[in-house]
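look at this one:
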Amino acid sequence: MSVNAPFTVTGNTIVITATTPAPNAVQAVSTTLGGNQYRIINSGSITAFLGFGANATIAATGANTPTGTVANCLPLLPGTDEILTFIPNAFFSANATSSTTIYITPGDGS
C-alpha cells in the first residue's frame, strides 16, 4: 500500500546485473508483513527490461526484450529511480543488450 511518507527501507537491497540472457531471478524480501513497494534504480546507460513475479520462473520469463506483448515485463529507462508497487516479496530478473546494474530495495512510502 502506498503511503504519503518518505520511503522507508524494509529489507535488504538486491543487485541484478542485467544481461542477455537474463540472469537467475532474485527475491527481494521485505521484513514487514505485506510489504510490496520497491525502490528500483537502473544505474546504467541503457534500457533494461525488468522481469517480476511471484516466483523465479515467472520473473525470468518476463525479463525479455518485448517483441509483442510480454507479461510481467517493465522497461527501465537509463538512470531510472522509481518507487513501484508489486506483490510482496517479489522475484526480479532483468535483460539488457549490454551489462547494466539494477538495484532493488523493498520498502514503504513515496
